[in-house]
From TrEMBL:
Residues 364-431 form the Argininosuccinate lyase C-terminal domain. The gene is argH. It is found in: Cytoplasm. This is Argininosuccinate lyase. GO terms for molecular function: lyase activity. Keywords: Amino-acid biosynthesis, Arginine biosynthesis, Cytoplasm, Lyase. Pathway: Amino-acid biosynthesis; L-arginine biosynthesis; L-arginine from L-ornithine and carbamoyl phosphate: step 3/3. PROSITE patterns: FUMARATE_LYASES. It is an enzyme of class 4 (lyase). Residues 7-301 form the Fumarate lyase N-terminal domain. Belongs to the lyase 1 family. Argininosuccinate lyase subfamily. It comes from the Bacteria. The keyword Repeat does not apply. It comes from Tetragenococcus solitarius. It catalyses: 2-(N(omega)-L-arginino)succinate = fumarate + L-arginine.
């Protein structure tokens, strides 16, 4: 088959070589963007008098008809046409004949592919921003229902101090908020038009790059044509933001998986987000959470793949860059689905409040309370720490807890200890009293929720 670029070639093409060089099997996902880019380009060519009004009209009609056929699933792409750009161009010939050949004036596939990617990512990142916003609101709603739900707070996965479950959820709210902001900042680098950079050096045709950019809804144009066609920073940044986002989802999923276990039983995921076992009838597995955790691997992989592809590339375009797209599509699909599943999973999970609280009642997570109590009575904190450490050791040896120690015994340790210690040792009191700003005290958690609600509404 004759290639659209075949003028200087005499040798034969081999199907298996064509297949190796082709990108249509994945870049067809940018078909809509490719046609939009061409529509803007041709309108600009017409407006600048580079093609006639009539030619412009014919090409526009052809492209519009292709856009419609695409929406109706009536288009077939071929490997012989290599990529989405050449496929669309050759389909345009079928629509309108040889005038189609004027479309590629003052343009190259190099600025074309970059334009498609900027358009694709702009749309995708806007969807991701919506999804992160939704997940944040789900987290805040769940937190609001659980301000006074007491759970063990962990360090080293050992009971540390009791906390509010709402507070725990709001920590994830903060992470996802930063993820959303990173995506918003990323948009500034995505929202730039490379169109008109042509192959690498610009063009002698009197084009109007700003007009084409405005037509496509871009806020600005690249200042340097070499940079325009070879820059993939906006994509590296996106893949890196996506990796951080997945890292957060993965951490949360890891906790959910643990909390669903028989040993914890802190939460129960709804049936929709769980699966059974083909052999063990009793099983209810947190597959969706495990998959989000697992899919984090491919998102990290996509980032490292692209960084590695670009690291040795001379300016400007190199075919290596064709390897930039599969990771972009894969990451986009993965994070959009993960965000949706995460939100659904949190929204519908049952919280076993009594199990959570009970886990803070037969443990030593109130040891800091006792040390703080002594420090409040004027005993230096280090000394208080030592005293409580010894009491904990004794309790462990006797199989009791700090709240079981009789007052007489406490007063032997320090006469400063009064009967009010027992109230202080309750986990709910320990949580309630942490009024320091950003702490887990109920008042602090409520404040965080109010702030989050304002943030969510003003975006
Ligand atoms: N399919 C190519 C890619 O994805 C489009 C650009 C091709 N440009 C070229 N000079 N061969 O990178």
């Amino acid at each position: 088959m004759k290639k659209l670029w075949g003028g200087r070639f005499t040798g034969e093409n081999k199907d298996w070589i064509d297949a190796f060089g082709a990108s249509i099997s994945f870049d067809y996902l940018m078909a809509k963007q490719d046609i939009l880019g061409s529509l803007a380009h041709v309108k600009m060519l017409g407006a600048c008098g580079i093609i006639t009004e009539d030619e412009m009209q014919q090409i526009q009609n052809g492209l519009n008809s292709l856009q419609e056929k695409l929406a109706n699933n009536e288009i077939t792409f071929t490997i012989q046409n290599e990529d989405i750009h050449l496929n669309i161009e050759s389909l345009l010939y079928e629509e309108i004949g040889s005038v189609a050949g004027k479309l590629h004036t003052a343009r190259s596939r190099n600025d074309q592919v970059a334009t498609d990617m900027h358009l694709y990512l702009k749309e995708t990142v806007e969807i991701i921003i919506e999804k992160t916003h939704h997940l944040r609101s789900v987290l805040v709603d769940k937190a609001a229902e659980n301000v006074e739900t007491i759970m063990p707070g962990y360090t080293h996965l050992q009971h540390a101090q009791p906390i509010s479950f709402g507070h725990h959820l709001l920590a994830y709210y903060q992470m996802i908020t930063r993820d959303q902001k990173r995506m918003q900042e990323n948009l500034q680098r995505i929202d730039i038009s490379p169109l008109g950079a042509a192959a690498l050096a610009g063009t002698t045709f009197p084009i109007d790059r700003k007009m084409a950019a405005e037509e496509l809804g871009f806020s600005s144009i690249y200042d340097n044509s070499l940079d325009a066609v070879s820059d993939r920073d906006f994509l590296v940044e996106y893949l890196s933001n996506a990796s951080i986002l997945m890292m957060h989802l993965s951490r949360f999923c890891g906790e959910l998986i643990l909390w669903c276990s028989y040993e914890f039983q802190f939460v129960e995921l709804s049936d929709t987000f769980s699966t059974g076992s083909s052999i063990m009838p009793q099983k209810k597995n947190p597959d969706m959470a495990e998959l989000i955790r697992g899919k984090t691997g491919r998102v990290y992989g996509n980032l490292f793949q692209l960084l590695t592809v670009i690291k040795g590339l001379p300016l400007a375009y190199n075919k290596d860059l064709q390897e930039d797209k599969e990771g972009m599509f894969d990451t986009s699909e993965t994070i959009i689905h993960s965000l949706e599943i995460m939100a659904g999973m949190i929204e519908t999970m049952e919280i076993n409040k009594s199990n959570m609280q009970q886990a803070t009642e037969k443990d030593f997570s109130n040891a800091t309370e006792l040390a703080d109590y002594l420090a409040n009575k004027g005993i230096p904190f280090r000394q208080a720490h030592e005293i409580v450490g010894k009491l904990v050791l004794e309790c462990i040896q006797q199989g009791t807890y700090l709240q079981d120690i009789p007052l007489e015994k406490y007063q032997q340790v320090s006469p400063a200890i009064k009967a009010d210690i027992y109230e202080k040792l309750r986990s709910v009191t320990a949580v309630k009293n942490r009024h320091s700003s950003g702490g887990t005290g109920f008042d602090q958690v409520k404040e965080q929720i109010e702030k989050a609600k304002t943030e969510l509404q003003i975006e």
